[in-house]
């Protein structure tokens, strides 16, 4: 249970970090706003033409008598829109991180520097980082969608579907949110997707403490946009703990450079930075 509190603490520390670094917060809002506009346009289009799409996809029901035709296609239209909303919640973080890769990379690096005076670098060109991020995000989204469809189906079970399933759904969504968010910092450290998942599975309560409240907050319109920069900052701090680096100071100092890590040759921070 202690890890639940630590995970939530990292979420709060991330929000506090961006509150103390207004420029980074402002830049970090841009990807979320762009993604929000794209998703809003897609959902509006679905609301306007979803019924037409369902009618086109179910020609076998054209000759059904009233009221069955209207009930059948109305149910399918509502189901389609509900699935689209669920998918938007699940994929929002992945798409936002992909759109804002350079912005969030810079933010994550500055969080590392504020803690240890050094930010690990992958050494890969930007196009390669974008490709790896897109590939890994797609893999995570596929897993999340499978879980989402399964939980959506289980939601029709009486009592359990209205009590246990929503809680499990938030935990699952939160876990995948944490994987996407910590990936920004862990990719720079050369940690592959399989290893990232293993790290998080070994600290599920830490992941749930961070991701589950965030998943609940993301259900409120526009909240995801304003929480994303702080979520990336907090996930960077949590990633440091996952790989055994010191996050004790949590970048709370007024000096944005923070404390320098162990000095390497020539007085520069060593390649291990704040690694303990």
What proportion of the residues is helical, as a percent range?
over 70%
Beta strand count: 0
Low-pLDDT stretches are 248-276
Series of secondary-structure elements, N-terminal to C-terminal: HHHHHHHHH
Q: Would you kindly provide a written description of the structure presented here, covering whatever features stand out?
A:
The protein is an all-alpha fold. It is about 75% helix and about 0% strand. It contains 9 helices and no strands. It has helices at about 1-20, 20-55, 70-100, 100-115, 125-155, 160-190, 195-200, 205-215, 225-240. The longest helix is centred in the first third of the chain and has 36 residues, at about 20-55. The protein is elongated and about 70 Å long.
Could you give a quick summary of the protein structure above?
The chain has helices spanning 2-20, 22-57, 68-99, 101-116, 126-154, 160-188, 193-201, 204-217, 223-242. It has 276 residues and is mainly α. It starts with a helix and ends in a 34-residue tail after the last helix.
């Amino acid at each position: 249970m202690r890890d639940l509190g630590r995970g939530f603490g990292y979420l709060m520390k991330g929000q506090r970090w961006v509150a103390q670094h207004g420029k980074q917060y402002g830049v970090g809002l841009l990807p979320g706003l762009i993604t929000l506009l794209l998703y809003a346009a897609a959902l509006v289009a679905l609301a306007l033409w979803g019924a037409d799409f369902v009618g086109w996809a179910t020609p076998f029901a054209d000759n059904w008598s009233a009221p069955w035709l209207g009930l059948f296609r109305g149910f399918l239209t509502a189901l389609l829109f509900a699935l689209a909303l669920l998918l938007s919640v699940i994929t929002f973080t992945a798409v936002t991180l992909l759109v804002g890769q350079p912005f969030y990379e810079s933010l994550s690096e500055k969080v590392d520097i504020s803690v240890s005076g050094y930010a690990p670098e992958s050494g890969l060109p930007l196009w390669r980082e974008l490709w790896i991020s897109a590939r890994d995000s797609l893999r995570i989204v596929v897993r999340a969608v499978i879980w989402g469809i399964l939980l959506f189906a289980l939601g029709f079970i009486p009592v359990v579907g209205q009590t246990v399933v929503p809680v499990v759904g938030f935990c699952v969504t939160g876990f995948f949110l944490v994987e996407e968010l910590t990936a920004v910092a862990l990719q720079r450290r050369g940690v592959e997707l399989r290893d990232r998942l293993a790290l998080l599975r070994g600290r599920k309560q830490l992941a749930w403490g961070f991701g589950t409240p965030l998943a609940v907050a993301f259900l409120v319109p526009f909240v995801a946009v304003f929480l994303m920069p702080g979520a990336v900052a907090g996930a960077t701090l949590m990633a440091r703990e996952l790989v055994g680096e010191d996050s004790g100071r949590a970048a709370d100092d007024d000096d944005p450079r923070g404390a320098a890590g162990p000095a390497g040759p020539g007085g520069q921070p060593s390649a291990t930075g704040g690694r303990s």
